[in-house]
Design goal:
The complex is a heterodimer. By secondary structure, chain A is α/β, with parallel strands linked by helices. Chain A is built from 18 helices and 14 strands. In chain A, the strands form 3 sheets. Chain A has a 5-stranded parallel beta sheet, with helices on both faces. The chains are: A alpha/beta, B alpha/beta. The complex binds iron/sulfur cluster (2 copies).
Chain lengths: 455, 449
């Protein structure tokens, strides 16, 4: 099986998107920011459409619109024009410039372009360039590179922190607006203040408008990014990234800021760990209302355990989500037999290896990186799992093999409320647990000839 | 507030009645304008995608393929190869050393696995730059595998979506005319530019069947390579969706002497016309065909008209904005909306040409704004200025409409409801009602009066 898989020259039904999508996502979490993709028009439009279909919010992404002559003479002039047009039309605080495969292939030096642009057009807003050629990685890499670029370009310039309470920098993977709101709430409840980068909690999940906002309200203020080094500490959540992707690591090296790393708080163990971390760094006990939810959650674990025990589950999506799901499904007695991601980074393999075999199993799970649905389908068919958990692109397999699919992560193009999906903290875990159990019950019910009304 | 129009785009926005008609179009998108257009590749994909027994291989980096995987509503009555996504997924080393070997290997690997009737190889932006000789790889693979392996030159930067249509037509013309076997009725047509979104082609085909006409091929809805091979033997070509397949129709006229007519299947008026025109064409050989067409129109109209009228009483006086891919569709939409009593106050397209816009201008009331290759800043400005109740467009415009408390109807390739034909017209009216008349808009801050 795997030998054949490795010989594949083509990708069939990919389980990943491209770097500038991740870059756009990150830039959308900065206040007053418009992304410009340096390349042809199509990339920007496709990425917009793809993200809009998930978030159901207006998402404007500009392009420097290459044509044949740009490809021959380079894209400096186009970029300058694009930046000026975006600046004049949107009046942004910040323009994020991400490259694409095309501009990288013709060898455009984006850093130099931006330096010269700043010199020639002194009245412009902040410009942050990032190199994101998709042939080097997926949306995840693009996302992390962009956060890193934002921090490296801006942090250190500020002199004070606005706002109250000890500030914590949160560097998060691509999680939902609702989960970001939870992180902000819990930090606030513990008398701290979360500076979340990127903060898409409002920009990509906002309300109706009185008048049209060229740039949706919300996002991390760039003044706050400039003052990140003045916070109490950084907290990096998710899988452990290579050092040169880690903004917390950079702040530590440059500014001596403590950098804490923790798993995404999904499940009791991971959330306990996260709460402890907050308690220590904020020097404040977890408020009792949060602990009440914890006890409700463990009670639900008890109520649910029999439905879950040994149930085989396949997990897929971005590395941080899959890692978190692996930890959680193991914790509740399911058997995550197969984990895959489109990312070729090597991170997922390492992470799952570290977590070890699930308690209900004696064999380690199969973990595949750089894996497409085309590769995964045969394996899933053979394993015959009880459930799939991942993004909506897994639906083709789910339908073909008649296995329930719980939609988590990105993209979710065939369900409603993707932005409000919760899985972090005790409350988010409880939400996900309910969904998993119900999905298994529903399958059992609909598969049975008897038509139980009472399970 | 004046409209936020970029200096370079001043001439791509026109308000009827303010000055003599003057609108620029057919231009590359302005850098930094958040154009709603995609790219050349998108144009080719749109046209060829519905061919269900061909393998569609995207040669380039992964994103271009990922974003176009199964996003369109083109359905098939048989094979569904078109709904799978294949890419050569070029990586760093391929960019340095070239992707030809990988492409050749991919074709060789995929064809035996999926047994397609043909392969379309789309070259995207970077392929042109890294210098792959896609033509010769395809040629060689085709000879080896015994099926057509056809390159589609669709580098995103090399023009606009319209150039992608042309590239698709060039690819199709390599298949058209390659099979002379079998019988074809003298009363036969091809339908070009019909993509069978939500099964629309089947609705239309059924009308023609009832008229006694054989539909040899549909380019490309529910498309099959073998049908396309024989398509040169039809007596008449019908071209819907003006932009995309007119070049193909022209070519078939020159090469095979097949005349063509432009038709539209949106709105009862236009569908009726599309049936009558064909009956007219065959009237010498079959004088009764006209009567059969009239019968269909009578029957269908009487079936759906009462419900349409009911919609009209609810929608009368509402104001609508239209922004669609091709201008030809906008003509039909204006006509349908008129019959529903709705005023069109803004109309635009991604790819219209000068003739199209002249016709739009002549159809519209004074004060109507006409835009070419517009962007969210302009569109949202006019939604507010013209106090629009309803927006007809694609997914990218939807959240903008909703934020402002404006109803929305998706008339793009992603739609899952059939909007063509007589029943489609009523579906459209119902969709419009379902959004424009929803009670939720009273919670939208902008609509609280
Ligand atoms: S790389 Fe080129 S072909 Fe691909 S989506 Fe972008 S513009 Fe289109
Ligand atoms: S060319 Fe690269 S950046 Fe553009 S859509 Fe394709 S993969 Fe993404």
């Amino acid at each position: 099986m795997s030998a054949e898989v490795q010989n594949y020259q083509s990708a069939g039904n990919p389980c990943r998107q491209c770097m500038p999508l991740g870059a756009s996502w990150a830039f959308k979490g900065v206040k007053g920011c418009i992304p410009v993709l340096h390349g042809s028009q199509g990339c920007a439009t496709y990425i917009r459409r793809y993200m809009i279909s998930h978030f159901r919010e207006p998402i404007d992404i500009a392009s420097s619109s290459f044509d044949e002559t740009t490809v021959i003479f380079g894209g400096q002039e186009n970029l300058e024009k694009a930046v000026l047009n975006v600046f004049n039309q949107y009046r942004p605080d910040i323009i994020g410039i991400a490259t694409t495969c095309l501009s990288e292939t013709i060898g455009d030096d984006i850093d130099r372009f931006v330096r010269e642009l700043k010199k020639n057009q002194p009245g412009l807003c902040t410009l942050v360039p990032v190199s994101t050629p998709s042939y080097q990685g997926t949306q995840e890499e693009g996302f992390h590179r962009t956060i890193y670029a934002l921090v490296k370009n801006l942090a250190g310039a500020g002199e004070v922190h606005a706002g109250e309470g000890p500030a914590l920098n949160f560097f998060l993977p691509m999680i939902t607006p609702a989960d970001i709101r939870w992180i902000k709430d819990i930090t606030k409840a513990m008398k701290g203040r979360a500076v979340v980068l990127p903060d898409i909690s409002e920009t990509l999940d906002g309300g109706l408008w009185e008048e049209y906002n060229a740039i949706p309200p919300g996002g991390t203020d760039q003044e706050e990014i400039k003052s990140l080094h003045l916070s109490e500490a950084s907290v990096e959540l998710g899988t452990v990234l290579p050092d040169d992707w880690r903004p917390g690591y950079w702040l530590q090296k440059q500014h001596g800021l403590p950098n804490l790393q923790a798993a995404l708080p999904l499940g009791v163990d991971a959330t306990d760990h996260f709460m402890k971390l907050l308690e220590d760094v904020l020097d404040c006990p977890v408020p009792p209302e949060f602990m009440e939810i914890r006890s409700r959650l463990t009670d639900a674990y008890a109520d649910a355990h029999k439905y879950l025990y040994g149930k085989k589950v396949v997990l897929f999506g971005d590395t941080s989500t899959v890692e978190a799901l692996y930890r959680f499904t193991s914790e509740i007695g399911m058997n995550p037999v197969f984990c895959f991601t489109g990312s070729p980074s090597g991170i997922l393999k390492k992470a799952i290896e570290k977590l070890g075999t699930p308690p209900v199993s004696t064999t380690a799970p199969l973990v595949m990186e750089d894996c497409d649905f085309g590769d995964a389908e045969g394996i899933i068919e053979e394993m015959n799992p009880d459930m799939l958990i991942g993004n909506s692109k897994g639906y083709k397999i789910a339908r073909k093999l008649d296995i329930p699919l719980l939609r988590v992560g990105f993209p979710i193009h065939d369900r409603f409320g993707a932005s409000r999906q919760r899985m972090l903290g005790y409350s988010g875990t409880l939400n996900l647990l309910d969904q998993i159990v119900n999905m298994l019950l529903e399958k059992k019910q609909s598969d049975s000839d008897i038509g139980y009304t009472y399970i | 507030m004046s409209a936020p129009i970029l200096k370079d785009r001043n001439k791509q926005v026109f308000e009827k009645g303010k000055a003599a008609f003057d609108l620029q179009c057919d231009r590359k998108s302005v850098a930094g304008s958040v154009s709603q257009r995609a790219c050349v590749f998108c144009g080719s994909r749109v046209v060829l995608y519905p061919i269900a027994d061909a393998l569609h291989l995207v040669h380039g980096s992964i994103g271009c393929a990922s974003y176009t995987w199964d996003i369109r509503g083109s359905v098939s009555s048989g094979p569904e190869l078109h709904r799978l996504c294949f890419s050569t997924d070029l990586r760093e080393k391929d960019v340095v050393y070239g992707g030809e070997k990988k492409l050749a290997a991919a074709i060789r690997e995929l064809v035996p696995k999926h047994s397609p009737k043909a392969v379309f190889v789309y070259s995207t932006c970077i392929v042109g730059v890294i210098g792959d000789d896609v033509d010769s790889v395809c040629k060689k693979a085709g000879q080896e595998l015994g099926i057509p392996v056809i390159p589609v030159h669709s580098a995103g930067f090399a023009g606009t979506k319209k150039d992608g249509y042309k590239a698709a037509c060039t690819a199709l013309s390599k298949i058209v005319g390659t099979d002379d076997s079998g019988e074809v009725s003298p009363f036969s047509i091809n339908i070009l530019g019909e993509f069978n979104l939500a099964g629309e082609a089947w609705i239309i085909k059924e009308y023609y069947r009832r008229m006694g006409i054989e539909v040899v091929s549909i380019l490309t809805g529910d498309g099959r390579i073998d049908d396309i091979r024989r398509s040169h033997r039809a007596s008449l070509n019908l071209v819907q969706c003006s932009g995309s397949l007119t070049t193909m129709a022209e070519e078939m006229k020159d090469k095979y002497g097949i005349p063509y007519k432009r038709v539209s299947y949106f709105g009862m008026e236009d569908v009726s016309k599309a049936l009558y025109e064909v009956a007219d064409f065959f009237s010498e050989e079959d004088p009764m065909m006209k009567e059969r067409a009239a019968e269909i129109v009578r029957e269908e109209v009487s079936k759906y008209l009462p419900a349409m009228q009911e919609c009209k009483t609810k929608l009368e006086g509402m104001k609508c904005a239209i922004y669609v891919g091709g201008a030809f569709k906008a003509f039909s939409l204006i006509r349908i909306l008129r019959t529903l009593g709705v005023d069109v106050v803004l109309v635009g397209s991604q790819t219209g040409n000068r003739q199209d816009y002249e016709q739009l201008a002549s159809m519209c009331d004074p004060g109507t704004v006409i835009v070419d290759d517009s962007n969210p800043m302009e569109l949202s400005h006019y939604i507010v200025e013209k106090d629009v109740d309803l927006f007809i467009g694609g997914v990218k415009e939807r959240p903008m409409a909703f934020k402002l408390g404006v109803g929305f109807c998706d008339h793009n390739h992603e739609r899952k409801t059939a909007l063509a034909g007589f029943e489609g017209t009523l579906n459209f009216a119902n969709e419009v009602c379902a959004s424009a008349l929803s009670p939720v808009w009273r919670f939208a801050p902008r609509r609280k009066k």
